[in-house]
Specification:
By secondary structure, this protein is an alpha+beta fold. It folds into 2 domains: 108 residues, Sandwich (Immunoglobulin-like), CATH 2.60.40.2250; 159 residues, Roll (C8orf32 fold). It contains 6 helices and 15 strands. Strands 1, 2, 3, 4, 9, 14 and 15 form a 7-stranded antiparallel β-sheet that branches. Strands 5, 8, 10, 11, 12 and 13 form a 6-stranded antiparallel β-sheet that branches. It has a two-stranded parallel ribbon with strand order 6-7. Strand 6, helix 3 and strand 7 form a beta-alpha-beta unit. The relative contact order is 0.23.
């Protein structure tokens, strides 16, 4: 699939800021099934950008802005060719051994309810891959996708107890349950092409990947109940949202801030015509 990503983030402040520092995980890598053709980051003000690769293998851009400034716009645009690999990730940067992703974090810490779910899945399905598919379907079946009811700091236990959340919460719960069953799992941020025609989206997407010795890493999207396919553009990964969030940072200057996000994932016009 030939996809274009148009990702705009707009920060506005009630007071001019003296200094703004942002960490951007918005640039994907090429790997089997995902070829980056073009990718740009445009900042709507005078800014310094420094690039590096973090410990998870993610491409990171540090953004430094000196004030006074009351508005920062970040525009990310990219062009990607994708293939359906049935969720299997090959040739991606992998600086860490899979066992690292058995660790729990504050956002992915399991509750008694998640532990009971994991125990039940182990009893029902002995095959590891089949168990992960069952977990993926079960979370999609039992949890309601409900924007606005959770926050970026909502943990897996709270979302599971509430019975609803957004893609971030589904991914955290998947990771918590998979790790309890002995399978390394990690959080993934990226973009999703909506086949229902909804090209405008309020945020980037999130899903999970689990590691099986005979396959490697495999992408599972419990928010949609499927494995990642050619509609997915993988950008960053980590133990949880905090390690893979598209943007995070700090500012000095006081006042309040407002944030607006607009994401558009489209098929190229030439492919649509074909």
């Amino acid at each position: 699939m030939h996809l274009t990503i148009d990702y705009r983030t707009d920060y506005r402040f009630t007071r001019p800021q003296h200094r703004i520092i942002q960490l951007l995980r918005v640039t994907p890598d090429s790997h089997a099934g995902q070829i980056i053709v073009n990718w740009t980051i445009d900042i709507g003000c005078d800014a310094q950008l420094r690039n590096h690769v973090d410990g998870y293998g993610n491409r990171v851009t540090m953004l430094y802005v000196r004030g006074p400034i009351d508005h920062v716009g970040i525009h990310v645009w990219g062009e990607v060719f994708t293939d359906d690999t049935a969720g299997v990730i090959r040739d991606a940067p992998e600086p860490l051994p899979p066992a690292i992703f058995l660790r729990e974090t504050p956002l992915s810490r399991p509750s008694a309810g998640i532990a009971a779910l994991a125990d039940n899945l182990v009893r029902v399905e002995k095959d590891e891959l089949s168990r992960l598919h069952l977990l993926n379907r079960e979370l999609n079946r039992t949890l309601a996708f409900d924007p606005g009811k959770t926050r970026v700091d909502t943990d897996a236990a709270s979302a599971f107890a509430a019975g609803h959340g957004v893609c971030q919460d589904f991914a955290h719960i998947f990771c918590a349950a998979a790790r309890l069953a002995g399978t390394p799992a990690r959080y993934v941020s990226g973009h999703l092409f909506r086949r229902d025609g909804a090209e405008q989206q309020p945020a980037a997407h999130a899903w999970a990947e689990a590691y099986i010795d005979s396959f490697g890493w495999i992408g599972f999207d419990p928010a949609n109940g499927i494995c990642a396919d050619d509609a997915y553009v993988r950008v960053a990964c980590g133990l949880d949202y905090a390690a893979a969030a598209p943007l995070s940072g700090a500012r000095t200057g006081g006042g309040q801030e407002s944030l607006s996000v607009d994401v558009r994932v489209r098929q190229s016009q030439s492919q649509q015509q074909n």
